[in-house]
């Protein structure tokens, strides 16, 4: 759930070093411990379960429904795919969206997120480019459909989340107290709490990074009446692609960290006992997926978590491919040619302390 496609840069999806100066350390408000949550030593990188030509399958969102897996990725009108099991075979199913929303300047969507609302009710969240902000800035919209493959029709009116300076109809959430008024928003991610309340998480573009959350209506199509978004995390480093899971009463926040265009892009997780303002600012950031502990997957990020057909959970994520294998460790998608992102698959479990672990990776048979 990131942005861009092909070997070219996403321009600012992770506020790349070409556009802004990155600090090498977290801000003092964020504790960091370099501890791994994978009780395995991957000797060789797994093979991607889906890696179509062209732009690949970046920033995957995947759901399981009726004994099938359905996925969407960054690209023109949100490319979709279907797999009978997680390891495939996967089949490309074309764009999920019928058209771009009226407020968007193009149909290239970043980091879509697919959520089931009810029987024959699905919502697709996406980040689309807009006018009126800094270059390559985006706003978040929603679209509805009756099946996981759509077709999805954008919700009428303005964006779901968008800075007030954008040239769009009035959005539901204008990102209050955001100092970078010309920066956009990306990486939408739906979350349903144990009491049934729906939320949307997202990332603000440019540095410093912030992850935010806002309460939605029951249909998941608009911000709930009277609700305003709040910041969950602020960092001087690139932190993006939030995915929230509730476990044993706590909230586990998965995210991607680092520059998307390099093999050092990684997946982290954090724990908090609530989702109030700045709930994740001072908690430990644990490593979950890195190029080292995946056996050499280049930039394992953009992760999404879904229920498995066996009752467990799976983690889908992307990594850079050069040809049929992972790109070399010094690969940089902003300067090197030939890279695309393929979708990988791991088995997500929980240890005795309810910490997430990836017990193994799965490859196509």
TrEMBL record:
Pathway: Glycan metabolism; L-arabinan degradation. Pfam families: Glyco_hydro_43. InterPro entries: GH43_arabinanases, Glyco_hydro_43, Glyco_hydro_beta-prop_sf. Residues 1-21 are annotated as: Disordered. Keywords: Glycosidase, Hydrolase. GO terms for molecular function: hydrolase activity, hydrolyzing O-glycosyl compounds. It comes from the Bacteria. The active site is at residues 59, 240. Signal peptide: none annotated. The record marks 187 as: Important for catalytic activity, responsible for pKa modulation of the active site Glu and correct orientation of both the proton donor and substrate. One of its GO terms (biological process) is carbohydrate metabolic process. Belongs to the glycosyl hydrolase 43 family. This is Glycosyl hydrolase family 43.
């Amino acid at each position: 759930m990131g942005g861009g496609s092909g070997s070219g840069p996403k321009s600012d999806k992770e506020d790349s070093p070409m556009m802004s100066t990155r600090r090498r350390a977290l801000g003092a408000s964020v504790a960091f411990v370099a501890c791994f949550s994978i009780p395995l030593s991957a000797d060789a990188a797994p093979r991607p379960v889906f890696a179509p030509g062209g732009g690949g399958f970046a920033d995957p969102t995947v759901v399981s429904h009726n004994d099938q897996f359905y996925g969407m990725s960054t690209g023109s009108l949100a490319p979709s795919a279907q797999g009978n099991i997680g390891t495939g075979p996967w089949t490309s199913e074309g764009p999920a969206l019928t058209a771009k929303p009226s407020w968007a300047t193009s149909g290239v969507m970043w980091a879509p997120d697919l959520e089931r609302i009810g029987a024959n009710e699905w919502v697709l969240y996406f980040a689309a480019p807009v006018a009126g902000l800094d270059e390559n800035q985006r706003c978040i919209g929603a679209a509805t459909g009756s099946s996981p493959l759509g077709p999805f029709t954008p919700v009428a009116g303005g964006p779901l989340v968008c800075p007030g300076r954008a040239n769009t109809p009035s959005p539901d959430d204008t990102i209050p107290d955001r100092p970078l008024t010309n920066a956009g928003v990306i990486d939408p991610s739906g979350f349903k709490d144990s009491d049934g309340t729906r939320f949307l998480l997202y990332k603000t573009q440019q540095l410093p990074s912030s992850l935010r959350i806002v309460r939605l209506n029951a249909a998941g199509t608009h911000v709930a009446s009277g609700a305003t978004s709040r910041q969950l995390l602020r960092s001087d480093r690139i932190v993006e692609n939030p995915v929230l899971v509730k476990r044993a009463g706590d909230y586990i926040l998965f995210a991607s960290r680092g520059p998307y265009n390099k093999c050092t892009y990684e997946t982290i997780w954090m724990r908090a006992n609530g989702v109030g303002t700045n709930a994740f600012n001072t908690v430990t950031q644990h490593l979950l997926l890195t190029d080292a502990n995946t056996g050499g997957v280049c930039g394992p990020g953009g992760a999404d978590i879904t229920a498995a057909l066996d009752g467990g959970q799976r983690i889908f994520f992307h990594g850079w491919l050069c040809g049929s294998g992972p790109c070399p460790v010094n690969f940089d998608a902003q300067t090197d040619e030939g890279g695309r992102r393929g979708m990988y698959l791991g088995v997500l479990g929980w240890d005795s302390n309810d910490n997430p672990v990836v017990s193994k990776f799965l490859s196509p048979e």
